[in-house]
Amino acid sequence: MADFSTCPVIEIKDVSKQFVMGDNVVHALRNVSLTVKQGEYVGILGPSGSGKSTLMNIIGCMDTYDSGEYKLMSIPVAKLNDRQQTIIRNRLIGFIFQKYHLVSTYTVLQNVMMPLLARGESYKEAEAKAKEKLAMLEMSDRIYHKPNELSGGQQQRAAIARALIGDPKLLLADEPTGALDTKTGEEVLKLFRTLNDMGHTIVMITHDLKVASHAGRIIRIVDGEITEQ
Ligand SMILES: Nc1ncnc2c1ncn2[C@@H]1O[C@H](COP(=O)(O)OP(=O)(O)O)[C@@H](O)[C@H]1O
Ligand SMILES: [Mg+2]
User: Fold this and answer.
1) Nearest bound ligand to CA 49?
2) Quick check: 222 and 200 in contact, CB under 8 A?
3) Pick from 87, 46, 75: which is nearest to 204 by CA?
4) In whole angstroms, what is the distance from residue 1 CA to residue 222 CA?
5) pLDDT given at position 228
6) Partner of 43 for a Cys bridge, out of 32, 87, 177, 212, CB 3.0 to 4.6 A?
7) What is the C-alpha to C-alpha distance for residues 128 and 113, in angstroms, rounded to an integer?
8) Nearest to 40 by CA among 212, 206, 220, 201
9) pLDDT at 1
10) CA–CA gap between residue 168 and residue 102 (Å, rounded)
11) Most distant pair of Cα atoms in the chain: their distance
12) Quick check: 80 pLDDT over 80?
């Protein structure tokens, strides 16, 4: 039995993925290997088209790969069926996206409650936990607002509360400051640093060296290959 208290969060070994479009083959990932330990804050840095989103989709159990091996908390996720992968995603990963991906018809509170309701927790319990998380992120005065009534920074804080609500093992962020002005982006990055100091494992994907430099370790990806660790 794997020891979950000390195992790496992410273990990727020689993973490759290609996209075939007619005669054209794109090698989106070439023999990528990457280990992320519990408590690390890793920035994955690469230009547009380098394979970042492909890698994020694999880490997030949202896409398959052609060869190699990927374990999330010692679990070989590719061997699981869709339903099991959905459970793994809900339990182990908190997703943070560039454009927040909040449900526009829900209040902030309802958005943050969603991951807990999806795993069958009671409404009352989910509501209490969501209020607590939103208080921690200084969003208590906005919980009954709809996303479009909030600033970008506030929407991203709501999305971060939603990512944190289920106590995930990994925070997986794709260009989390990409839609924010510099100052608001810095605030989000400061929050990430605080969360990492609290023990959260973070993988942040970005094309911006300044953003990546907030992470504890930077991994560069170019043309589907990791060039520097
Ligand atoms: N669904 C797809 N079908 C065909 N090609 C794809 C698909 N997704 C990504 N690609 C190609 O794979 C390469 C890597 O893409 P991507 O992972 O989105 O890069 P990034 O996120 O770094 O911009 C690019 O050349 C892209 O055009
Ligand atoms: Mg991308």
Assistant:
1) 1
2) no
3) 46
4) 36
5) 73
6) 212
7) 9
8) 201
9) 53
10) 18
11) 55
12) yes
Helix (H) or strand (E) holding 92: helix 82-92
Ligand positioned closest to the Cα atom of 18: 1
Cα gap 54→46, rounded to integer Å? 12
* Residue nearest to ligand 1 atom 6, measured at CA: 19
The listed CATH number (1.10.3720.10, 3.40.50.300, 1.20.120.450, 1.10.10.10) that belongs to domain 10-228: 3.40.50.300
Cα distance between residue 156 and residue 177, in whole Å:
9
What is the pLDDT confidence band of residue 3, given thresholds at 50, 70 and 90?
Answer: low
Per-residue exposure over 126-146, b if at least 16 CB sit within 10 Å of its own CB, e if not: bbebbbebbeebebeebbebb
CB 139 within 8 A of CB 161: yes
Distance from the alpha carbon of residue 6 to the mean position of ligand 1, in angstroms: 33
What is the tens place of the pLDDT at every residue in 48-67?
Answer: 999 999 999 999 999 999 99
User: Which residue among 26, 55, 64 is best mutated to probe the pocket of ligand 1, counting the most ligand atoms within 8 A of its Cβ?
Assistant: 26
Q: Which atom of ligand 1 is nearest to the CA of 54?
A: 17
